[in-house]
Amino acid sequence: MTALDSTFLQARAGDRMAFARWMGGVELPLRRALRPFARAVDVEAVVQEALLRMWLLSRDRRRELTGENASLRFALGLARNLARAEARRLGHERLLPPEGLPEPSVDPEPPPDPALRKAILGCLERLAKKPAQAFAARLRAGLSADAVLASQLGMTLNTFLQNIVRARKQLATCLARKGISLENGL
Question: Is 129 buried (19+), middle (13-18) or exposed (0-12) by CB count in 10 A?
């Protein structure tokens, strides 16, 4: 049994902080798995919906997850299915990756682009106050739980997450005005 599975079992036993730790452990893998869907759906909303459904699953005593990394595997499948359903609902199916094809291999990273860095920093400076605070807190904190970051900023968790979404949209709009394409989303 992995540490993630153990934490999820603690959450099923009623430990809310264990569920928060579990979310912290699966958030990054969920976001990475949803990267191919970024052009078709609001990935933030899909992640939040998947985590909410996993919370509900953790409360359901009739359902059991078995196997190594069962909670992570289930959350990944759930998130992908939610993203596909949302893309279909929005009519964005043509933006989805083809089924069954492997993800393209990633070439080594090109050297950083100083002009791009300057454009991003300029757009970050133009963000509205509250979205900028939330976005900066998430960038600085790395894997810290969103609830902790929200509390540190004096925001409710929902307000914090809304400010993250607003910041990402404002940043994308600003970069688009500068002619920078975000083909993989933010």
Answer: exposed
The string over 97-114, giving b where at least 16 C-beta atoms fall within 10 Å of a residue's C-beta and e elsewhere, is eeeeeeeeeeeeeeeeee
Q: pTM of the entire structure? A: 0.52
pLDDT digits (tens, 9 = 90+) for 21-66: 999 899 999 998 888 888 888 889 999 999 999 999 888 888 888 8
87 has pLDDT over 90: no
Q: What is the C-alpha to C-alpha distance for residues 67 and 65, in angstroms, rounded to an integer?
A: 7
What does the alpha-carbon distance between residue 121 and residue 127 come to, in Å, rounded to a whole number? 10
Dist CA 74 CA 172 (whole Å): 31
Domains 3-95 and 114-177 share a fold: no
CATH fold for domain 114-177 = Arc Repressor Mutant, subunit A (1.10.10)
3-95, which class in CATH?
A: mainly alpha
